[in-house]
Amino acid sequence: MKHKRQVQWMRVFIVIGGICLLSTGIYRYINQARQLSRYLHENEQLKKENETLVETLKRSTHPFDVEKTARNQLRMMKPGEYRIEFEDKKSVPR
User: Fold this and answer.
1) Domain ranges of the chain
2) 60 pLDDT exceeds 80?
3) What b/e string do you get for 1-30 counting C-beta neighbours within 10 Å, with b at 16 or more?
4) Could you give the angle at the alpha carbon of 43 between the alpha carbons of 37 and 47, nearest 5°?
5) pTM for the whole thing?
6) Alpha-carbon distances, residue 44 vs 30, 35, 48, 55 (angstroms)
């Protein structure tokens, strides 16, 4: 009688342990599937952005575009030129 109870309790613990292991495994699988989905979506977005940048680069090889970028973004000037900048009215205290 005592031996049968021990076996029954052992079975209960084994079943509970199996359920715990399965549930954590399923949880990890679902988490990884979601993460994979996010990575695939992000990868598609980056591919689109890369295509846009490649097109921009192809267009910007014209000397006029190169000079415009150098002047506006890098604040470069030709020898003998002066840069005149005006303050925003919003930033000037009254």
Assistant:
1) 2-72
2) no
3) eeeeeeeeeeeeeeeeeeeeeeeeeeeeee
4) 150
5) 0.47
6) 21, 14, 6, 17
